[in-house]
């Protein structure tokens, strides 16, 4: 096989359709690691450190999960996302069924391995040969005679499992053209309370960043809806659909733990014009899902006490922003009605964000409370429409397609920290808006940005770059935090 570049192996994976046949001799029992050193670290110590660092950013659920969707690209791209899934894994699991798409051979049905063990730099993982032998008796199951040797989609899941579990077996399964319903029926009898199932899959491939996010959002909505026959744009859509059916048979429901693109995790290695999407989704009981959603809402909750706004007040502020937007775009001057000026007369930090068809169309604001809230909303709506340097001015024909969002900020407060690790510990994703100040540079991300950049280190690196600092500028910058109440039409 022609040797591929490190970057191609590491990022895009292997997408060469071919047939690899090598009949397994009696003494061939170990499937050697195929992508160690390209998709992930080859050095065992460094590999373990990388996996542990990724897992540290994950959060266990109220009830551990045994059904996961995790990506399978190079760790620098998909590792942080996959770790969000594996951080929820039940550590008492003794058998893991890993289902991934075959990238090297097309066939009808599913294929099981003829090896006895899978190897990674962290050691060998035994295959549950009893289950494999039983599966081979099924009409829809064949033996992967060698074409699993170069396959990366199963292998890259193993280092996470090796760090999280002890003394476990795997059942590696590759899919091609098959009916997910039939496969789920075949696998269901083998799933007990000590068995986990992982669907290995990336999402959209090689799209422009904004397009990829829109495509991935649709796929994720399908998964979260439980529609196993719905739209899923993914290389492993068959493994995902199999997992969804198995989870439904176990009365489990999905929760989204993370979703990003390769550009969002590693912009230094990936252009915005050609990205791959990833998601980590766990399936748990309804009570555990409710607890997760409640906790998520708590992390994103509006500040208490005086920072609360009633539904009528939110509606009034959105009305101010909308009227100012439409007047500005049509070249007219908007006068704030006296009742609004009197009602929202305290000085507040404020941002107005415009989106069109789900994509950012403008966002301008005041971080500090330098103007009365009513005036801040009106001015920032106008500025977002006409003076955001990233976009052309909004024109009248666009108004009906634009959605307005208002964010009202608390006064920023200094956040003292000892070192980089201390700062990472103190930040609360989803709650904290962050300001970085260093020399003549400064920048801010609203709390909503955590939805696109949920990894703390990545969030701060992007914020540093936004402010014209080095990627590590956040480690020595002055940091302020604030909270925000945000609401939209």
Question: Layout of SSEs?
Answer:
Layout: H1 6-11, E1 30-31, H2 44-56, E2 67-70, H3 75-86, E3 95-101, E4 110-113, E5 117-120, E6 123-126, H4 129-135, E7 141-144, H5 158-164, E8 169-175, H6 180-187, E9 195-200, E10 205-207, H7 209-225, H8 237-249, E11 253-261, H9 262-265, E12 275-284, H10 286-299, H11 311-329, H12 338-343, E13 349-356, E14 359-366, H13 373-386, E15 402-409, E16 413-414, H14 420-426, E17 433-438, E18 441-445, H15 456-466, E19 478-482, E20 484-488
Parallel strand pairs: 1-5, 2-9, 3-8, 3-9, 4-7
Antiparallel strand pairs: 2-12, 4-8, 5-6, 10-12, 11-12, 13-14, 13-15, 15-20, 16-19, 17-18, 17-19
Keywords:
elongated; 23% strand; alpha+beta; Glycoprotein, Type 4 Pilin; 489 residues; 9-stranded mixed beta sheet; 4-stranded antiparallel beta sheet; Protocatechuate 4,5-dioxygenase, Chain B; Dna Ligase, domain 1
